[in-house]
Design goal:
By secondary structure, this protein is of the alpha+beta class. 42% of the residues lie in helices and 26% in strands. It has a single domain, classed as Endonuclease I-creI. The termini are far apart.
């Protein structure tokens, strides 16, 4: 059972990496070279009260893993927040390319956390 979970997570992670690696070298460095566009969503989710952690002020519920003019990758452990974030990004012309759900667990805990990653792009 555990081997099946590891295999599943590995396949999902590799598909996400494969998708992200299909972008040009320019896209890979866009996070630092085109700051006006590429920090748009990161700033939006970091400063929006709608996406702030309810009990830890200053902590955003949405992590922007990657952002360029054509691609946004979002991650969250909060299923309601990830879909509200997707709606906000879709309003800017992006579409969903892939959705990944995976489990994480701290080494010292039996608590399992579900994580959601959404990869979106626009033409």
């Amino acid at each position: 059972m555990m081997n099946n979970k590891i295999l599943f997570i590995s396949i999902i992670a590799l598909s996400a990496i494969g998708f992200l690696s299909n972008h040009s070298i320019g896209d890979a460095f866009a996070q630092t070279t085109n700051a006006t566009q590429t920090v748009k969503w990161n700033n939006f989710f970091a400063t929006s009260d709608d996406f702030e952690h309810p009990t830890i002020p200053g902590i955003a519920l949405i992590d922007v893993l990657y952002e360029s003019d054509k691609t946004v990758t979002l991650e969250s452990t909060y299923v309601d927040s990830i879909w509200r974030a997707v709606d906000a990004v879709k309003a800017d012309g992006y579409k969903i390319d892939d959705v990944v759900q995976y489990e994480t667990r701290a080494f010292s805990s039996d608590n399992i956390h579900l994580n959601f990653m959404v990869i979106m792009s626009k033409d």
